[in-house]
Design a protein that fits this description.
This protein has eleven helices and 13 strands. By secondary structure, it is α/β, with parallel strands linked by helices. A seven-stranded parallel beta sheet has the order 3-2-1-4-5-6-11, sandwiched between helices.
Amino acid sequence: MRLLVLGGTKFLGRAVVEAALEQGHEVSLFNRGETNPELFAGAEKLRGDRDGGLGALEGRRWDAVVDPSGYIPRVVRASAELLSGAAGHYGFVSSISVYGSYRTPGFDESAPVEQLDDPASEDVGAHYGGLKALCERAVADAFSDPVANIRAGLIVGPYDPTDRFTYWVTRLARGGQVLAPGRPDRQVQFVDVRDLAAWIVELADSRTAGTFNATGPVPPTSMGELLEVCRRVGGADAELVWVDEDFLVEREVGAWMELPLWIPESDEAFRAMQDADVSRAVETGLTFRPVEDTVRDTLAWARGANGTAGPLASGMDIGKAGMEPEREAELLSAWRARSSVA
């Protein structure tokens, strides 16, 4: 298969290229050459800009295209229009965030998607989910061959730039008392970037069309099970202190980003966000490696190739997501004081 990847050098795009090359496919990358340009010396590299600089794609043909870097409908439509008839399959990486709310556990791909009051908005930070939904529509309207809309959940693993999963891996590896939110048995969902990427390449190769919730794992896991794995893999003397989520809400602890993977059960609009039905993706070949493998590989990457560099070494650098150590200590102290009085 001749595969075009729009982007291809950062996190999911990088994993897609790695998976495609490992499977023996011929890969072309289209990007600006600004992020990790040294990667993939054996792949064709086409330079340009998705917003008005698509010239390098004109007059070419591929068997399939994977788009992990589309966020603005106008920009996505331009690439889909240009590649319509020039590629046999379009794999658009969308997001679980397209759904307007998450009130029903086990929601599937038929659930309503978010509708923007201003469809012309290009404010990705404010309207991420709604814009992704419009991007899906733009591809469907502009591309004449099979389309796969991949509604990814939280993507995790090595090279994750967000730390929304890496926080827990490195935090348990530092040891000490660790603030754990809510109920230990509450389900959490995420997908290893390498499992997602391999499946995306398979969809492209088979020209499979459809819309898919792409998260996991299957069988499901809980927050308590995940943190126990992190503790075991990290090998440190860590103690999980489970804190009632009403206490966290009262103290305005930030869901999802300050405490990754946690969404208050009192949040009616989002409380079922990590209870997506992924059976359609599983039926088409999405598989999940053991959570322990993901945790181990993420920790190794976070520590750096020589075992000393990276977020874990400083004990403070938890990236874009995660709770600062001082904040965690203050909350644990207040929780202990409250519990002793009670």
